[in-house]
Design goal:
84 residues, mainly alpha
Length: 84
């Protein structure tokens, strides 16, 4: 019997969790219209996908925080113990 669209989608998502070096995670959220439009503008300006732009922005913000932390501190441990 052929798989339903929902079954194919579930299989695809399951594989994505282990894709590449570290897998991928799905983010599904609503943002303000202004934020969504800004993401579109930024991605067009830099000729990248919205996914690429979002990844760049988040990783840059994360690196900015990490650069202020002492690797031997409790703050470092607390920052990196956040999981989801």
């Amino acid at each position: 019997m052929a798989k339903t669209a929902a079954e194919r989608q579930a299989e695809y998502r399951k594989k994505r969790a282990v894709a590449g070096n570290n897998g991928e995670r799905r983010i599904n959220t609503w943002v303000a219209t202004g934020t969504a439009l800004a993401l579109v503008r930024l991605s067009k300006r830099y000729s990248v996908t919205q996914r690429d732009m979002l990844e760049r922005l988040v990783l840059a913000a994360d690196q900015q925080v990490v650069s202020t932390l002492d690797p031997d501190s409790q703050e470092w441990t607390n920052y990196f113990s956040v999981t989801q």
